[in-house]
Amino acid sequence: MNDTTPIQRVRRGVLGDVLVLAIDHPPVNALNADVRWGLLAGIQAAESLSAVKAVLIVGTGRAFIAGADIREFGKPPLLPLLPEVCQRIEDCNKPVIAAIHGAALGGGLEIALSAHYRLALDNASLGLPEVTLGLLPGAGGTQRTPRLIGTKAALDLILAGRPIDAQQALRLGLVDRVTATNDALVAGLAFANELIGAHAPVRRTCDARALHVDGPAHRQAIAAARQQMEREPKDLISPRCAIDAVEAALDEPFERGLQLERSLFLQCLNSWQRRGLVHAFFAEREAARFPGLGDAKPLPLEAVGVVGGGTMGAGITVALLDGGLAVTMIERDDIALAQGHARIEKVYEGLVSRGRLATTDKSARMARLTGSTSYESLSDADLVIEAVFEDGAVKQSVFEALSRVCKPGAVLATNTSYLDIDAIAAGTSHPASVLGLHFFSPANVMKLLEVVVPANASPETVATGLALAKKLRKIPVKARVCDGFIGNRMLAVYRAAADFMMEDGASPYQIDRALRDFGFAMGPYQVIDLAGGDIGWANRKRKAATRDPRARYVQIGDRLCERGWFGQKTGRGYYRYPEGSRQGEPDPEVEAIIAEERARAGITPRIFNDEEIVRRYLAAMINEGANVLKDGVAQRPLDIDVVLVHGYGFPRYRGGPMKHADEQGLARILADLRRFAAEDPLFWRPSPLLVGLAERGADFASLNAAF
Ligand code: 3HC
Ligand code: NAI
After folding, report:
1. 3, 392, 441, 482 — which has fewest CB within 10 A?
2. Are strands 18-23 and 10-15 parallel, antiparallel or unpaired?
3. In 3-state terms, what secondary structure has residue 613?
4. Phi and psi, residue 466, nearest 5°
């Protein structure tokens, strides 16, 4: 490279006949305004330099280009706009070649599609993930992609939002060639010189002919995509807009298609679902940064212990084995140990039979598993995760044993859902090493990990929990000790709000449907039936003695459990599950029990509309979220959003409950709470933190910024 342009983000240099434009904008070469200017100026220079016969675009560092700069969304647009840059590249009168390594995503792939030739390195990852941000490809992607690879393949790429690898891209015709060379500049230059030698012409993607082959198939692909959308929430607009834009590629000239794409892109850009998804994108990354940890170093993590091989212990063991760790699993006796082992086998067999795991990989993972009934086997463990029964005395005895046998400094973690981890820590001889690691079921699948930090945990202990989360590719969220931590504490409150509505007149089926329509993966009563009503029942019985006698308590769930109706596993719960079906049907007998309970409580049922159901459920959730913040259990509203989205089925495209509250306006949430409080002032007491923010005209986002 012999020259740097005034625009620093794109280095420019002539190497032989080729002008190289090397994008240098760490960490992922996002296309901010400087990069866009640099590319534009580079193309202009190529045309004006007579010695230049071709242009090569490469990325420096770890990626080609990870897309538009997500941080620019929602701010006043900066020129030049990306579609203009792409058009200028495509219009260049000399061949432009893109040499792709690492990520070529969104606008990054659109830059490559505007080039005339594309070369991918083996490690390339190509995709159009815009719908995952509430957008659609907005720099020609909806018009160029179908012209190049056909409608079906283009829609698959755009609607799934998942990247594909270099070989898949080659098979689809998205790239011209794949190379094993591991240097994009070297490989790109060789390709460019070869094209120059062959007098390869400028070849514009807008002129590509894939849409001219097998016409009916393109219409079918559009129809199939629209049908698929019927299963998606109605107000998730970006995939629907993307389909409309791709259809325009079939019906309209290229320029008109671009215009439509632009207007649909702007519609999505200015929508709440885009704001929600971009919030989720940054919140997931921010949550993993624990403020206040300083430069504490994690302890080495190689050998890990798990105590308990039940539902959670087995799932956690699979997650640890998948993360490359050696695991020793402890159970009470040989029979329980064999059962735990069988649970792990079953998970892996399921993966193998669905083609998701090779048999050899299963064997390699199982080879790292050791089982034992003796705590002494944990003497070398760097970290132990306890997942025994949810019983304080049982846990206490496990921790006594662990603090006796484990090496000094080993992290002793509990997967408890509700119990007081400060008390557990106090009962050990190493309180600084005790931590909560609250996994979600199924633990090998769910991405969320609440890292619950007791008062005396050392920074190294916390850093080790965080390092474990990263190793397992989980999203860690820091929580403090309280009954239920962030997620289960909030769940108890918004589920109570659902129970009140049920007792006051709404059916569980209406409540579930209204919340599914809002975007939840499942309604609360479907979730109870899936997880097993007995778990909550046991918890309610345990807390009965300490429950505030003034608090309203709905007994409908208890009535079902007394009949042994625990949900899917017993064939009956809130729904009926005929012959082991997982698809529940409304049950008239349950409705009769609800009617009896209403009569017993002296309640005349009233009608709720779906909007009222959603508003009450969310007001309860948001209000308790504010209390969780006030009490310091969660550090930032964004932490709560990540927990509810990744652990409790809150629709990601709404960002999370606290983001949703900001979108609605806190004054409106507070007004709802005050309206509901007229019926039950104890339950609907507005959180002082929410009141303070609403009265100042502030929002939860202002608390995210404080860190
Ligand atoms: N814009 C701005 N910042 C970005 C970014 C982008 N497109 N992509 C990543 N970043 C930032 C991240 O926020 C993070 O910042 P931080 O260090 O301050 O937290 C940093 O880059 C590194 O990102 P990751 O931690 O995610 O790194 P990974 O190596 O795990 O992943 C990646 C890299 C696969 C590129 C991943 O970051 C990713 O998926 N990025 C988003 C890609 C995307 O969605 N692009 C489409 C944008 S929309 C668009 O292009 C519209 C167009 O059609 C007009
Ligand atoms: P489970 O009943 O399926 O498994 C508990 C296991 O612990 C049993 O296999 C039992 O034999 C074993 N065990 C009991 N005492 C032991 C001891 N002293 N030494 C060794 N093993 C012992 O229970 P589950 O559902 O796996 O729950 C375990 C923990 O995880 C509980 O604290 C629970 O609150 C928590 N949790 C459960 C979730 C769930 O969805 N089930 C989700 C998140 C946390």
Report:
1. 3
2. antiparallel
3. helix
4. -65, -40
How far apart CA 274 and CA 73 sit, in angstroms, is 9
Which of 425, 449, 483 is at the close of a domain? 483
The total number of structural domains that make up the chain: 3
If you average pLDDT over residues 595-618, what whole number do you get? 98
Residue 7: is its pLDDT beyond 60? no
pLDDT digits (tens, 9 = 90+) for 290-329: 988 888 999 999 999 999 999 999 999 999 999 999 999 9
Helix (H, G, I), strand (E, B) or coil at 78: coil
Amino acid of residue 90: E
Question: For residue 457, is it left (φ>0), alpha (ψ between -120 and 50) or beta?
Answer: beta
One domain for residues 61 and 209: yes
Q: What is the pLDDT of residue 707?
A: 58
Q: Are residues 161 and 179 in the same domain?
A: yes
Same domain, 331 and 446: yes
How far apart are the CA of 282 and the centre of ligand 1, in A? 9
Q: Which residues pair with 476 in a beta bridge?
A: 449
Find the DSSP H helices in 368-430: 392-405, 421-426
187 pLDDT higher than 90:
yes
User: Of 218, 249, 269, which closes a domain?
Assistant: 269
**Phi-psi group of 674: left, alpha or beta (phi > 0 → left; psi -120 to 50 → alpha; rest → beta):** alpha
130 given a catalytic annotation: yes
Q: Which two tokens stand for residue 509?
A: 């089926």
Strands (E), 506-618: 575-576, 585-586
How far is residue 271 from each of residues 231, 247, 276, 516, 610, measured CA to CA in Å?
A: 21, 22, 9, 21, 23
Query: Around Cβ 104, how many Cβ atoms within 10 Å?
Result: 33
Closest ligand 2 atom to Cα of 315: 26
Residue 465 and residue 565 in one domain:
no
Q: Within 6 Å (CB) of ligand 2, which residues are found?
A: 307-313, 330-332, 336, 340, 387-390, 394, 398, 415-417, 439-441
DSSP string, 52-71: --EEEEEE-TT-SB--B-GG
Residues 572, 580 contacting (CB under 8 angstroms):
no
- Identify which of 371, 370, 348 has the alpha carbon closest to the alpha carbon of residue 359: 348
Closest CA to 563 of 518, 533, 520: 533
- The arithmetic mean of pLDDT across residues 248-259, rounded, is 97
The predicted pLDDT at position 313 comes to 97
pLDDT at 2 over 50: no
Pocket-testing residue among 9, 25, 28, ligand 1, by greatest number of atoms within 8 A of Cβ: 28
Q: Which of 26-30, 81-85, 288-292 has the lowest mean pLDDT?
A: 288-292
> What is the percentage of the chain residues whose pLDDT exceeds 70?
99
CA 457, CA 466: separation in Å to the nearest integer? Answer: 13
Q: Residues 617-635: pLDDT tens digits? A: 999 999 999 999 999 999 9
Its sign, for the CA torsion 519, 523, 529, 535, is positive
User: What is the reported pLDDT for 387?
Assistant: 97
For residue 202, what are the CA distances in angstroms to 41, 44, 92, 117, 253?
19, 16, 8, 9, 20
Pairing relation of β-strands 411-414 and 434-439? parallel
- Smallest CA-to-CA distance from 320 within 292, 298, 344 is with 344
Residue nearest to atom 39 of ligand 2 (CA): 441
Sheet holding 164-165, edge to edge: 103-105, 125-127, 164-165
Atom of ligand 2 nearest to the CA of 394: 18
The residue assigned the tokens 């505007």 is 114
Q: Cβ-count burial of 183 within 10 angstroms (0-12 exposed, 13-18 middle, 19+ buried)?
A: middle
Q: Which residue has the tokens 């820590």?
A: 425
Measured between alpha carbons, how far is 18 from 411 in angstroms, rounded to an integer?
57
| Cβ-contact 433, 264 below 8 angstroms | no
